[in-house]
Automatic annotation (TrEMBL):
It comes from the Bacteria. Residues 2-53 form the WYL domain. Residues 80-159 form the WCX domain. InterPro entries: CBASS_pafABC_assoc_protein, WCX_dom, WYL_dom. This is WYL domain-containing protein. PROSITE patterns: WYL.
Length: 164
């Protein structure tokens, strides 16, 4: 068990965690861990950790948990929404390489290489997906949920206002 000082986008905090492992995705290193404060699993970006020291907390039995399955142990809380996004062939390739497994997004690929995403996602993750799909440009076309489309419009309005 370790106590780490961690800086997220919103907070600087100290957390007692039980790391499961480390893996790289999209140029970042990630550490899935059991968080004693949240009593649930969390994914931490390693570059946001500021310091680490040993903790006196007792380990939780996580012998069956590893980097390949830790996300299946996450307790989903809060409302979920249906995601439906059409993808060009380039959009499919980018989703395959950039959407990390923690989001449990299944990519459906057609014979011509185009595809779609059709999954349930936590409503709380709309800002993340808004940024992601804006980054795909015309290689993605979000059809649902309406809340995600609203979030993306707000983000694009702010960006447009920045360059007036």
């Amino acid at each position: 068990m370790v106590r780490m000082k961690y800086e997220s986008k919103q907070h600087k905090q100290s957390r007692d965690v039980q790391p499961i492992g480390i893996y790289a995705s999209n140029g970042f290193w990630y550490c899935p861990a059991y968080c004693f404060h949240r009593r649930d699993f969390r994914l931490f970006r390693c570059d946001r950790g500021r310091s680490v020291e040993l903790s006196k907390l007792e380990a939780v039995n996580l012998t069956q948990v590893h980097t390949g399955n830790w996300d299946s142990y996450i307790e989903e809380k809060g409302p979920v929404v249906e995601l439906y996004v059409e993808l060009t062939a380039t959009g499919v390739q980018r989703c395959e390489s950039e959407l990390w497994p923690a989001h449990k997004i299944q990519i459906h690929v057609r014979e011509d290489g185009t595809g779609w995403l059709g999954n349930q996602i936590p409503a709380s993750s709309l800002p993340f997906f808004g940024q992601f799909f804006i980054g795909l440009g015309t290689d993605s076309n979000v059809k649902a949920p309406d809340g995600l489309i609203r979030v993306m419009r707000e983000m694009l309005d702010k960006l447009r206002a920045q360059y007036r």
